[in-house]
Each structure stands twice: as C-alpha cells, then as structure tokens.
Design goal:
alpha/beta, 363 residues, Rossmann fold, 5-stranded mixed sheet, 10 helices, binds potassium ion, binds magnesium ion, G_OBG, binds guanosine-5'-triphosphate, GTP1-OBG_CS, GTP-binding, P-loop_NTPase, 7-stranded mixed sheet, GTPase activity
C-alpha cells in the first residue's frame, strides 16, 4: 500500500514540471494507481475498499460528507428520528449512522458519516470507508462550515475526485470500443479544443489498448475526460448538494454570496434556519417524483407514495406497482400538475409530475 502511495506522490511531483503530452500520460498512470489503491486487499490494517456495513433502505440514499465538526450529526438528528451524538470535538461520529427522512410518503435514507480529513482518499482516518459509503449514495450532501475557509470545499472535492467520484457531472461524451485488430482509429466529431490525436494515442498505448475505436463527440473534452472513459468501471457520477451550516456566525453579505453559488444551500441547525429549505433541495436534487394512488370511489392514499424517476410515464408507474400490470391496463385517470384538466384520462405514454394522484383502470 505504501508503495502505491509513494508512486502516486512521485507522479504528482513529476506532473508539476511537465509538458502537455507527457502530462496526459502521467494522468493516465495516476488514474491506474489510484484504482489499485482502492482494490480490496486482505490482511489486517490494509484498509481496503469496503464501506460501513449499513444496508440500503427506502427510496434513495443520501450521504453526509464533510470535515469534522461541521454539523453533520446535528443535521441528521434534526431531520430524522435518529439521534446521532453531536459535540464540539472532532471525530465524535465513528461509524455510519443511518436515519430515515420522511418526505411526503417517500422514505430517504440519510447516512451520517465520520468526518474526513485531507488524505482521506489515501486511507487517512476512516477516509476510505467514508468515501466507499459515499460512493453507494444517490446524492452526496457535502456539509461545510460557513465560518471556515473557502478551500475546505475544494479539498473535499479533490479527495472524492481521487477515488473516481465525479460530482454534478455527466459521463464524458466520448465513445471508446476495444477491438481485436485493426490498430487505433481516433475521430473527432468537431475540432477539439483541449485534445489531439497524439495525446489520446499516448494514453491508449500506455494502457496497452492498441486496437480500438475512439469517437470524441464533445469539443470541450479533456484528457481527464478521456481517462475517465477508459476507467469507466471505476468512475461514479453522483449529484452533490453543497450545504453551508452555521450561518448564524457569518455576515449577511457573506451569506448572500454563499447562497448564490450553484448547487448550494445554506442553513443553521442551531437556530433552525433554512433546514427545511435544505430538505426540499435534497428532494429536488434526487430527481424523483412521488405519485399517490387512488382506488375508484376512495380518497387517495397520501401516507405512501409510489416513487419514480423524473421524466417517468404512467407506464413506469405501472411497472413500479406490478410487473404485469400494464398487460391489463385500459386507461389511467390523473389529478395534479401533469393533467391538462382534472381529472384527465390518459394512456401509458402520459408523462406524470411530482405529487400527481393516479388511478389505474384495468381491462
Ligand atoms: N454555531 C453553530 N454551531 C453548530 C451548528 N450546528 C452544529 N453546531 C455545533 O457544531 C459542533 C459539531 O457538531 P456535530 O454535529 O458533532 O458535527 P459533525 O460534523 O457530526 O462532527 P464529527 O462527527 O466529529 O465529524 C457541535 O458543538 C454543534 O453544537 C450551527 O448551525 N451553528
Ligand atoms: K463533532
Ligand atoms: Mg458527527
């Protein structure tokens, strides 16, 4: 383990004094070593890649990631029925503590995690375990202390980036296919701004991918994007909401500035300011919808929601209820934001909206 860490350090040092083509190559090597570092290794004290032993439950999982004492546990205790110990000293939380956030009939698992520090991705503290847990989540809630320096955010992002977590990013629009023969075929759909054939060629050769087809569809793609495509089995694209806590202790001007940053929310758990707003944002960022079902002649059941992904249709809702339901489907009645008039009679292709009430009529 030490060896890989040393190799990573060597490459990072070399990168600081290197030119474009060679830089791409070094980045490729670095990505490979970092993936090795995360491979589970047997034996005591190795750290490995395993997370905490908490099974997933509910409709989605949100991981609270942040430096020590930013207020992660305080937040969990506020929004769920679970009490997670909070205190003024670092590393109060030593393991993963799950809680359930009930949100209009949806159940969201919130995972309170130990604080992480710089070097977490290389195994400092419980960093590796925390990051593994974060990797299993549908949304990372990065909890930040509004009274601390702005660098805290970039430091945490770098730790997550080093283990292949990409925040608020789509997978690069680059096609790569390994072939048995025929050499390398590299094509650009539009003239690239940050890439050229030689850079890609160098990295592919280093990965011993001598026969393959590459099509770069995005003119802004970088060599980092290309490496992400090669390493796609080790990459995870996760949405992230940055939440600045302790706003009770900063100036209004600064607060205003923080609140304007993208993917950002602000709160004070202590004064109970903005907490509900953060909960609403969590729901929004998860990109899910709640549908309530109604039987003919009865009131809809709002205590339990059917959870579907954003952009779902009546067909997706049927599949969620029962896999053979659509075979007997005749039509559906819809009340809510997606209905042109209430109720509207619709077919399987109708796009539903959050909080719609639906009634399925079978043949
Ligand atoms: N001023 C202020 N203090 C807060 C706020 N929220 C939490 N705290 C305090 O911050 C300290 C740390 O809170 P915790 O909830 O233990 O923080 P944590 O992020 O879970 O910490 P670790 O588990 O050690 O990583 C406690 O003393 C809290 O009372 C807030 O909104 N404002
Ligand atoms: K603490
Ligand atoms: Mg804690």
């Amino acid at each position: 383990m030490v060896n890989i860490t040393e190799k990573i350090k060597e490459i990072e040092d070399e990168m600081k004094r290197t030119q474009k083509y060679h830089l791409g190559l070094l980045k490729g090597k670095l990505a490979r070593l970092r993936a090795q570092l995360l491979e589970p290794v047997g034996g005591a004290g190795s750290g490995g890649g395993a997370g905490f032993d908490v099974s997933k439950s509910g409709d989605a999982r949100v991981a609270l990631v942040g430096f020590p004492s930013v207020g992660k546990s305080t937040f969990l205790s506020k929004i769920t029925k679970t009490k997670s110990e909070a205190a003024a000293y670092s590393f109060t939380t030593l393991t993963a503590i799950p809680g359930v956030l009930e949100y209009g009939g949806a159940e969201i698992q919130i995972l309170d995690l130990p604080g992480i520090i710089e070097g977490a991705s290389e195994g400092k503290g419980r960093g590796r375990q925390v990051i593994s847990a974060a990797k299993t989540s549908d949304l990372i809630l990065m909890v930040l202390d509004a009274t601390k320096k702005a660098e805290q955010r970039a430091l945490l992002e770098a730790e997550l980036d080093a283990v292949g977590i990409r925040l608020n990013k789509e997978p690069p629009n680059i096609y790569l296919k390994a072939k048995k023969a025929g050499g390398m075929k590299i094509t650009f759909q539009t003239p690239p701004k940050y890439l050229d054939e030689k850079m890609i060629y160098n990295v592919l050769r280093d990965y011993k991918m001598l026969n393959c087809e590459v099509l770069v569809r995005d003119e802004y793609a970088t060599i980092d994007d290309f490496i992400d495509v090669i390493m796609k089995d080790h990459r995870k694209y996760i949405r992230c909401l940055y939440v600045y806590n302790k706003i009770d202790s900063v100036s209004l001007e600064f607060l205003d500035q923080l609140a304007r940053e993208p993917y950002t929310a602000v709160m004070s758990c202590e004064l109970d300011l903005g907490v509900q707003g953060v909960v609403d944002r969590i729901w929004k960022e998860l990109r899910l919808m709640r549908l309530y079902t109604k039987r003919k002649g009865e009131e809809p059941d709002f205590s339990e929601a059917l959870i579907v992904r954003r952009d779902s249709t009546i067909e997706d809702a049927c599949d969620q209820i029962h896999r053979t339901l659509k075979d007997t489907f005749k039509y559906a009645m819809v009340w809510g934001a997606s209905a042109r008039h209430v109720p509207q009679r619709v077919g399987l292709g109708h796009a539903v909206a959050d909080e719609d009430v639906i009634s399925i009529v079978a043949k």
